[in-house]
Task: structure prediction
Amino acid sequence: MKKVLKIIAIILFCIITLLYILLTHLSKKPFLGKNYNEKLKTGGAIEAKYIKNGKYDVSYYEEPALHGFEKYEIYYPAELEHMEDTKYPVVVFVNGTGAKVSKYKPLLEHMASWGFIAIGTEEEYDWNGFAAEMCVRHLTRLNENETVNDKDNFFCGKIDFDHVGITGHSQGGVGVFNAITIQEHKDIYKAAVSLSPTNKELARGLEWTYDASKIDTPIMLISGAGGGDDWVVTGEQLDSIYRDIHSARVMIRRKNTDHGAVLHSADGYVTAWFMWKLQGDEEAAGAFCGSNAEISNNPLYQDIKTDLENE
Result:
């Protein structure tokens, strides 16, 4: 019996190791071209609107960071540098396995074009959400100081900490869960999106622990389905995570979309979610709310579930 259990343990270890290697391999591929959003198919007017770039010109700022983060990378509306008495909402990006923010910077540029300060790092392993925590701490520093590194700091007083969101893909989806449940600034987040979060069983095997039942932030879960099913989190596994959550929640799966493509393929709805939750955009809310919510009628998605009562 002991021999059988040992063999089973070895097999499970090999499976987990192979999955981890595959995750790392996928993450090292170039992710997005600058005009990724011009090529995406959409299935509804709201999705089509928010997959396009917003009205803001975008600028970029970076600052070196300690740890394995390398640097903080911030995309923001260019007008921020000159506006007075104006604050801008924030979206923090959490990286997947081996996926530095510099590999998918068009997503941050797109978010900034809709009026957000978008921030991420070069951290390659952020299942615990600590890089996201450090992004919040860094933004706090920028918001509170008129000068940084002996230079004038145009971010001072312009960061809206009452409207902060967070998103991440794969391992980064797990990082989202942990950033909003266990990190010091967990209560600062008013909205979250977890894209293809590593399923509970695989996460345990990789020692990326999380407890979705602790989530009290409005959250949207998105994964792929069919035609190269999202093997990191199947529909059943995503539903299991959804059922653990007791805050306002949405679950959707994009048809014919593999794991890697989930990072950007549903970006129209990711943007709409943050526009609604962080900027009060009622048109964006129509994607998710009401008896005729767009996601419920969009032919590109399946397994739609919503529970928005627990705001």
About this structure: The two ends are 51 Å apart (CA to CA). The first strand starts at residue 58 and ends at 64.
